Amino acid sequence: MKSFFFAIAIIPVFLISSGITGCRPVDEEDTESTISQETFHLQMATFWPSNDFQVVEGHEKWIEEIEKRTDGRVRISLHAGEALLGASEIYEGVVTGVADIGTTCPAYTPGLFPLTAAFELPGFNNDNALVASVTAQEGYQRIKEELDIDEYEDVKPLFFWATGPGDLITREPVHNLEDLEGKTLRTVGGVVPAVESLGATPVSMPMSESYLALDQRIVQGIVAPTDVLKGFRLAEVVNYLTETPFLYNVVFMKIMNQDTWNALPSDIQEIFEEVNREFAFSYGQLREDYRLEGLNYGIEEFNLEVIQLSDEELNRWLEKIEPQSETWVEEMESRGLPGKKVLEIARELDEKYSVEYGDYKSTHTQESEQ
Hints:
46% of the residues lie in helices and 14% in strands.
């Protein structure tokens, strides 16, 4: 089991949570009638703030759908904004039962999910968040089925989705590599080596810590999707955005404690699986909608200046990051992991879904054009 020790401070939370979680393994003596009448009260942790679109239009709607389709037999209490577990604690918190369900980012526990990082490497088409999300979801399934590898064996993975393209968002303007040299940037996941190759210094931290880090100038910028400008209020502490869609993509996951999953009757499990298939797709649409909305918010409300790299400068950046995928493959293979095959799967799916969904247009954008 992948495991690490928690700080003593969260132990009381575990004790409280375990007292209010109604899910338990099914005893052999339980009758089908008893199980069918049982209500399962589940606790869900996420790092996104309660007013962020990922909570309001994503997690809350997912919860509503689960509760509706199970006729109230499943009740889920959502603890947003790290109220139950910190962003980097959520995975292990679900493993140990502090929470029944968690939504977080694999990159927040560096080194724990090395193969997932393949989907975060620079250089993919990565046309939008929908393409990135369905690529990540199917990629997990194919790695598990074709390569017999499951990096998430300690939990029940519900589904995966992703940010899609991200940009370089900074306090000072970045027009070229010289402007980037020596800057400290909040960065996570597979993009870290690429940022280093461009001459900047990556600093890994959860998104929830980025506002303070930017405000106090601990970092000079962040590589991120533009929804954070509104959802995490980062538009208040940055001034410029350099378009770098080729550089960034981060995967998210929704996971369940394995004992909790095992305790659910089969018909409820089937409902979860059905809803999860639908929301793996709709979460991708949702993130693309708000990626564009966040950009407009930064421009209109805070006069965010958008910078486009010249063709010559873009080629300089691409030349710097091009070797990163090969380096990643070599590292994985040296550890006995099928890096080459995983990257082939990721590229194949990126190409496939770029053709299918690359022209997806935000519903918000469509409404504003009417």
